[in-house]
Amino acid sequence: MGRMSESPGWTAPGAGGQQPPPPPPPLPSAPQQPVSGWGQPAPVPGGGSWAAPAPRPGIIPLRPLSLGELWDGAFRAVRSNPKPLLGGSAAVVVTIVLVQSVVQGLTAGELFSSLADPTAPTDQVLDSFGSSLPGFLGGLLLSVVLSLVATAALSGLVTVSVSTAVLGRRTPGGELWRRVRERFWSLVGVSLVFSLVPGLAVAALVAPGLVLLTVSLINGDGATVGVLLTLLGSLGAVVLGLWLTVRLLLAPCALVLEGQGVGGAIKRSWALSRRGFWRLLGIWLLTAVCIGVVASIVLAPFNLIATVVGAVVGIGSPLYFPITLAITGVGSALVYTVVYPLQSAVTALLYVDQRMRQEGLDVELARSAAQ
After folding, report:
1. Per-residue model confidence as pLDDT tens digits over 237-254
2. Is residue 80 part of a domain?
3. Which helix (H) or strand (E) holds 268?
4. What is the pLDDT of residue 78?
5. DSSP string of 115-177?
6. Which of 33, 108, 243, 370 has the fewest CB atoms within 10 Å, counting from its CB?
7. Between 202 and 51, where is the model more confident?
């Protein structure tokens, strides 16, 4: 197995002839527990406990995790190794925001000025739109590719850091980058699949209704069928998109920690998400919603400042677009520098949790931590 799986415990059961970890030995029989109200075990005299707590060498206890423990573990993972995680995230986010801002400033500034000028003739607005569209689409494609590559590297960085933090260890930034660099293009491939497959599936469901609706409007026919088909396709697209996203969610973690290829990582994610699908979906959705709400709250002052400054400068001013983009870009960079590592850490811990629930990974990790 490659160097990515050199830490004991992460290799998939059965890979390379490896057998799943044996179950822990049975505990010696204990005397019958006294039972108190509501069917719960009564406390042992002297404040003792009938069962030993799960070992916790690092950021999480080595047992199946609750939602609170997953979130707490994600925060602990970032705090335990802040320099490479937040520093790497800042480099990724600043680069993405800078490219997006430059693209928008160069390609959409003229169009925005024409739209904001009430005296501009329609021909001028259409000419501005036509001249700006190719550059805007090209810049958009560039920023999407850059985001895909950069976030893939960041995801691998966080996953490796979480895997060592679970065992109570901290991996230096240079070692993190070395281990991610070995699997970089495979990470990009998995991220491409993770991004494109749900998107293409959604487009395939929505496109027929939109085409029928457009043809109906052009021909002047009734658009009822087109509207209904679009609504049904959109509903199915949401369901299918969420299902595919969750089934592919753990693929980057399997690729980095188990030394899998792109196809093997996708298969592992598919297998690990088969059981506990609804739990994975709920945690992923709730995490995304909470992060989105917090990000919106933090970004609100920057948007307000941009609006006020823009009003002072004047919508028709050539400085309006660059200044407002700069202010909102600073806010986005600050917010997503923290958001990206936390979201990736939650995904990595979901992978660990699924393997502890299904494959007894907690036993193997406890052995590794003891060694």
Report:
1. 999 999 999 999 999 999
2. yes
3. helix 262-272
4. 94
5. HH-TTS-HHHHHHHHHHHHHHHHHHHHHHHHHHHHHHHHHHHHHHHHHHHHTTT----HHHHH
6. 370
7. 202
Give the whole-angstrom CA distance, residue 274 versus residue 54. Answer: 26
- Among 42-51, 162-171, 332-341, 354-363, the least confident range: 42-51
How far is residue 333's CA from residue 311's CA, in Å, rounded to a whole number?
23
Note down the domain range covering 97.
66-370
Residue 188, pLDDT above cutoff 60: yes
In a domain, 235, yes or no: yes
The domain tally of the chain equals 1
Cα distance between residue 247 and residue 270, in whole Å: 5
Beta bridge partners of 41: 35
- Within a domain: 352: yes
Q: What's the distance, Cα to Cα, between the start and end of the chain in Å?
A: 21
Cβ-defined contacts of 16-22 (< 8 Å, 24+): 20/359, 20/360, 21/359, 21/360, 21/361, 21/363, 21/364, 21/367, 22/363
Tokens representing residue 236 in the block: 């199915």
The pLDDT assigned to 5 comes to 43
Under 8 Å between Cβ of 260 and 254? yes
Supply 221's token pair.
């026919």
User: Is the overall model pTM greater than 0.85, yes or no?
Assistant: no
Q: For the segment 251-299, what is each residue's pLDDT rounded down to a tens digit? A: 999 999 998 899 999 999 999 999 999 999 999 999 999 999 999 999 9
Identify whether 21 is part of a domain.
Answer: no
Distances (CA, A) of 83 to 30, 57, 200, 337, 349: 47, 21, 37, 12, 20
